[in-house]
Amino acid sequence: MINSFKNLLNFCKKSHYNWNEASGLFSFSTKTSVSPSPNTLFKRILPAGDPQVSIVPILDQWVREGRPVHRSELKTIFKILRKNRRYTHALQLSKWIVDSSNLSPEDVAVRLDLISKVHGLREAENYFFNVPDSLKTFKVYGSLLNCYAKKKLVEQAEAIMRVMGRFGCNMKLSYCIMLNLYSKLGKREKLEKLVRQMEQEGITFDKPAYCILLNAYALNSDIEAMEKLLKKMEDDLLVNVNWNACVTAAKGYLGANLQDKASDMLKKAEKLIRGSNRGLAYQILLSMYASLGDKDEVTRIWHLYKKRGNMTNNGYFHMISSLIWLDDIDEAEKIFQEWESVNTSYDFRIPNTLINAYTKKGLLQRAEEFINRAINCGRKIPASTWDYLATGYYKDNQMEKAVDAMKNAIFSWKGTSWTLNRTTLTACLEYLREKGDAEKEKFERLLADQGIVLEQVSRLHESRSPRTGIFFELDENDEEMDSSFSGSD
C-alpha cells in the first residue's frame, strides 16, 4: 500500500497536481462522469463485486503497468462504490488513495462512516478516539453523529450534538439527522421540541427537514399535521414539492385508509417525476398502487416504465413483487419469463419472489422445478432460496426435505447478509432430536462450522418479505445524510 501511495504521489507531482487538494479528494462536488472502456481503471474495479476479495491488487497492478491515475476517475469510482453499497471496496480505495500521514478532516469523516458500515460502530469509535484532536473538526463529529443515528443510539447522538454546538457552525444538517432519528423511533415529543428549537434559532427548513417531518406525520397517519406541512412546503419558494413528497403523503393517506386521497396524491406524484430518478419513481409507484390493490394502475405504470427503455433488474423485481402482492402469480410468472429472456445479470431476488410465494401457498412442486432449472443451468443457489424452500417444507410438514433444504442454506450462508429463518431452523433441530441425538449433533456441528449461533438468528426474519414495500422516503434521506457529513458529493 505504501508503494502504491508513493507511485500515486509521484504521478501527481509530475502532473503538477495539487496534493493538498487531493488529500481532501472526497470533499469536492463534481459532475465528471467516466465512460467505461476496456482499458480504464473503472472497468477493472466495477465488476469485482465480491466484498471478500480486495481491490487493492487491481489498483497496484494498474500503477505497475505505468498507467495514469486520474483524480476524476478515482472520485467517480468511489462515488459509485458507495452508491452501490460496496462499502468494503470504497474503504479500501480511500485507504489506498490517502496515506495515514496525509489525512485531512474530510478523509477522516469519510473513513469513519465507512468503518462503521464495514466493521461496525465499535471499530468506528476506536478509530475516532485515535484520531489526533487537530483532525476532529465539526465535520468529523458530524460523521460520528450520523453513525450513532444509524444505530438509533439516542443518548450518544444527543451527546455528540452538544459537543457540535460548541463549534459555532451551521447546525442545520445535524438537526436534520436528529429529526430523522426521532422520526424513526416515533419520539414525537422530542421531534416537535427540536422543530420549535430550530424555529427559535432561525434555522430555515430545507427539503430534507421537510421530508423527514412529512414522513413522521405520514407514519403516524396524522393527516391534519401532514396536510398543514404540505401547504407550508408549497408556499415556500425555496422548496419544491417533488414526487417523493407526494408519495410520502400518499403513504399517510393509505395508513389512514383514505384510498381515494392516496390515489389522487400518486397521480400528482407521477406528474412531478423528472430526470434520472424516473426509474426509481416508477418502482415506488408500482409498489404503492399494489398496496392500494389497484392492478390496472400497476399495469399502466409498468407500461410507462418499459417505454423509457433500459429496464433494470430492480424494475422487474418490483413488478413481480407487486403482482404477487396482488395475488396474481400467473401474471408474475409471465413477467419473470420476460425477464429471463432479456436480463443480462441473474439476480436471485427475482426468482426468490416467486419461490417465496409458491412456498407460502403450498405450491412446493413449482418451487422445486424453479430451483432444479436454475441448478441445471449451472447457477449457484443462494442461502435465501434454500431458506424459503426449507420454510415451505416445514409448513407442509415435510421435515426430511426441510432439513435437507436448510442444510443447503447453511452451506451457502457464509459470507452473506441473509438471516436464516429461526422458526424453521429450530423446527429442524427439534425434528432431529426426535430422530436421535447423533443427528442433532451433526446438524449443530454444521451450524458451528459455518459460524451460525442459533441465539443470534433474528426472529425478525419471520416477517421478511421479498417485496420491498412502499416506504422508500427515509432511505433517500439517509443517503443524503451519509453523503453530506462524509463528503462524497
In a few lines, what is going on in this structure?
PPR repeats lie at residues 137-171. The protein is mainly α and 489 residues long. The protein has 27 helices and no strands.
The CATH class name of the domain at 104-204 and 479-489 reads: Mainly Alpha
The shape is globular
What is the rounded distance between the termini?
26 Å
- Along the chain, the helix and strand elements come as HHHHHHHHHHHHHHHHHHHHHHHHHHH
Structural class: mainly alpha
CATH topology of the domain at 104-204 and 479-489: Serine Threonine Protein Phosphatase 5, Tetratricopeptide repeat
CATH architecture of the domain at 104-204 and 479-489: Alpha Horseshoe
Q: What's the tally of helices?
A: 27
PPR repeats: 137-171
Keywords: Repeat
Pfam families: PPR (PF01535), PPR_3 (PF13812)
Organism: Coffea arabica (Arabian coffee)
Keywords:
489 residues; PPR_rpt; Serine Threonine Protein Phosphatase 5, Tetratricopeptide repeat; mainly alpha; single chain
Would you write up a description of this structure?
It comes from Coffea arabica (Arabian coffee). With 489 residues, the chain is mainly α. Helices cover 68% and strands 0% of the residues. It has 27 helices and no strands. The chain has helices at 2-14, 19-23, 41-45, 56-64, 71-83, 87-97, 105-119, 121-130, 138-150, 154-164, 172-185, 188-200, 207-219, 223-235, 243-255, 259-271, 278-291, 295-307, 313-325, 329-342, 349-360, 364-376, 383-395, 399-413, 422-435, 437-449, 473-486. The longest helix has 15 residues, at 105-119. Mean pLDDT is 83; it is low at 1-38 and 458-477.
